[in-house]
Amino acid sequence: MFDLDDLYQETILDHNRHPRNFGKLEGCDFSAEGRNPLCGDQLVIYVKVEDDVVEDIRFEGSGCAISKASASLMTESLKGKTRDEVADVFQRFRNLVMGVDVDTPSEELGKLVAFHGLSEFPVRVKCATLAWHTLQAALQNESEPVTTE
């Protein structure tokens, strides 16, 4: 069983304190808004895509440490990936945080493995996946805000 000390590993704390790719992306091709009413997380994901490849991705907003760190790590891990690769990484990440198929080799997820113990805290899974669901909505050009409820 994991405890909160395991949950808030140094990687998560670092990405919360110093989020990467934070701020609006001018000239983006896609954007979407996401909200987690239970925790108060709110963010906007901005994506620039060229030839089906994520050329740039940024986010802005506020939220808990898990939400912010997840968005930061997501943006780092998805730059340069195709849409199909983005979908694959999202599925692997989702499985990881939900405690499904936890045998995914860590090299396939990189720093995202910092969220490995999240399945022990189901309410926090929504915090970690908000940015990812919002990214999916952006890439599908959906206009309605994403919500975890």
Main attributes of the structure:
149 residues; alpha+beta; Sufe protein. Chain: A; 6 helices
Structure in words:
- By secondary structure, this protein is of the alpha+beta class.
- The chain contains 6 helices and 4 strands, in the order ααβββααααβ.
- It has one domain (4-143): Sufe protein. Chain: A (Alpha-Beta Complex), CATH 3.90.1010.10.
- A 4-stranded mixed beta sheet has the order 3-2-1-4, covered by helices on one side.
- A hairpin with a 4-residue loop joins β1 (30-36) and β2 (41-50).
- The two termini are 27 Å apart.
The portion of residues assigned to helices is 40-55%
Oligomer: single chain
- What is the overall number of helices? 6
Q: What top-tier CATH class fits best?
A: Alpha Beta
**Integer count of domains:** 1
Q: Topology as H/E string?
A: HHEEEHHHHE
Question: What is the secondary structure topology, with strand pairs?
Answer:
Elements: H1 4-7, H2 10-17, E1 30-36, E2 41-50, E3 53-62, H3 65-78, H4 83-98, H5 106-109, H6 122-139, E4 146-147
Parallel strand pairs: 1-4
Antiparallel strand pairs: 1-2, 2-3
Helix pairs in contact: 2-3, 3-6, 4-6
Précis, in short:
By secondary structure, the chain is α+β, with helices and mostly antiparallel strands. The chain has helices at residues 4-7, 10-17, 65-78, 83-98, 106-109, 122-139, and strands at residues 30-36, 41-50, 53-62, 146-147.
